[in-house]
């Protein structure tokens, strides 16, 4: 999927402002939160850490050469996830998932969680920062044939 | 890994719809400020006026207190504060706020927030920090609890005066009284902190007068507890600042647990003065203590 992604700058700016006041306990300036920067990472769950102040989902990615790399993604606090039905059992060790995220700006293997696609085709949104997960999922579904 | 993509018109429509929905929802839920009946020179003058107006306050029993049971959602969508804030900031505190606004324009957020290294939200930020609230009322004192950092405000309503033998503390010292179903609170001896991430700072001289009341939902407004507050800060403000917020009753089952932060937070201050995060395998990473992925059924724990 390398289709060009172009949007009017004014729409992006307004959208970014609307979601900026996140519920998290820290600034998100280390992540690229823009839709254009979103990455989709496929791997298997290594660890789902459902803790405050932020949950973390670590997955192991295997490239075509068999090299394995861990990627870690930051999600919301427990307080935000339990009401959404996301529990400690939502992500199982060894489960194949696709994580859509806003990458770390410095290029390390991590980012801010937006949504997770499970192997059975369902989605979960363990994201922090307001509605970034739902927005990303809407975009994801919109581009599907 | 693929770059996400889609067709431009569809995305523009989605984004515009989202923006419209967000703005209309936020403005609909934002709690309107109801200024106090007069402009007072100090928090004490304000408090004394309200106490006199309430004829010394209502003496409740455990059964006559209002019902504030349940879990209450606290969020930025219900607070009256909005950028740019209408606070009458002093010159120094205006400059600090302007710098935060500049950072927001530059990177979309302030570079760093003190909560990242697990400071309490503190008063007055406690009022609007977006984490669950829970309240325990009794005739002589009320506990106002917040999930984040287990911050409990104890409000003494038995007529005792302020006491601050330990000086200034994160949540300050709170006394109050009941005026019918309204809880009036006077808080002082707080620490220099801020109103919220990206919002103005407050000095340790800040004192707050709050009037709390539960409002039953009607005409599509939610069942909520409304807080009207006036901030007095002779260092940070040039005049009293009236603000408001509300807590909406959660329509889901939830239990507040102990909030850990220092042992579990992997977000930190980077060398460039901005927020960064420590990933698993990197120096300084704090592994989760116990709330980790459950192993598949039948597997032996590591």
Task: Write a structural description.
Chain A is an alpha+beta fold. Chain A has a single domain (22-142), classed as OB fold (Dihydrolipoamide Acetyltransferase, E2P) (Beta Barrel), CATH 2.40.50. Helix content of chain A is 18%, strand content 30%. Chain A contains 3 helices and 6 strands; from the N terminus they run H-E-E-E-H-E-E-E-H. Chain A has helices at 9-19, 78-81, 132-142; strands spanning 39-49, 56-62, 68-74, 96-103, 110-118, 123-124. Mean pLDDT of chain A is 84; it is low at 1-22. Chain B has helices spanning 8-29, 43-53, 91-107, and strands at 2-3, 72-74, 133-137, 141-146, 151-156, 173-179, 182-188, 193-194, 201-202, 207-215, 224-232, 241-249, 267-269, 275-277. Chain B is an alpha+beta fold and 302 residues long. Chain B has one domain (28-249): Calycin beta-barrel core domain (Lipocalin, Beta Barrel), CATH 2.40.128. Residues 1-28 of chain B have low confidence and may be disordered. The chains are: A alpha+beta (145), B alpha+beta (302). Chains A and B meet through helix 1, strand 1, strand 3 and helix 3 of A and strand 1, helix 1 and strand 14 of B. Strand 1 (39-49) of chain A pairs antiparallel with strand 1 (2-3) of chain B.
Keywords summarizing the entry:
heterodimer; A: 145 residues; alpha+beta; OB fold (Dihydrolipoamide Acetyltransferase, E2P); five-stranded mixed beta barrel; 3 helices; 6 strands; disordered N terminus; B: 302 residues; Lipocalin; nine-stranded mixed beta sheet; two-stranded antiparallel sheet; 17% helix
List the helices and strands and how they pair.
The complex is a heterodimer of chains A (145) and B (302).
Chain A lengths: L8 H11 L19 E11 L6 E7 L5 E7 L3 H4 L14 E8 L6 E9 L4 E2 L7 H11 L3
Parallel strand pairs in A: 3-5
Antiparallel strand pairs in A: 1-2, 1-4, 2-3, 4-5, 5-6
Chain B lengths: L1 E2 L4 H22 L13 H11 L18 E3 L16 H17 L25 E5 L3 E6 L4 E6 L16 E7 L2 E7 L4 E2 L6 E2 L4 E9 L8 E9 L8 E9 L17 E3 L5 E3 L25
Parallel strand pairs in B: 5-6
Antiparallel strand pairs in B: 2-12, 3-4, 4-5, 6-7, 7-10, 8-9, 10-11, 11-12, 13-14
